[in-house]
Design goal:
alpha/beta
């Protein structure tokens, strides 16, 4: 799977994911010059680069993602990791999704974790 982490995505979760899955294709918005852009631009970049977005933003990102889908603009998917999850639970669930599913299964879908 190919992931893009939102600006404020928990770095400890990122580190844990990469320790568990060293070959995971995961980048942060800061690494591709998207640190100061708005949510729709992040979703557009993720869609153009076929990356599932990892975010903690429950307030605005899902609405922007749903708007993309209703406007027939595709996206690779969005995984909203709720802030109250423990780091271990977030890592475990993301590892499960990354290893037991395929990228295209999440096309145009917003998933809230925990499952």
């Amino acid at each position: 799977m190919r992931f893009l982490c939102d600006e404020n995505f928990n770095r400890i979760i990122i580190r844990g994911l990469l320790l568990r899955l060293p070959d995971l294709d995961l980048i942060r918005v800061q690494e591709v010059g998207l640190r100061t852009v708005d949510d729709p631009a992040i979703l557009e970049w993720a869609a153009q680069n076929d990356r599932i977005l990892l975010t903690h933003d429950q307030a605005t990102m899902p609405d922007f993602a749903y708007n993309r889908v209703t406007q027939n603009a595709s996206m690779a998917g969005v995984f909203v990791v709720q802030a109250q999850m423990t780091v271990r639970q977030a890592i475990d669930e993301l590892v499960l999704l990354a290893t037991c599913s395929k990228q295209d299964e999440w096309q145009n879908i917003v998933v809230f974790l925990p499952l």
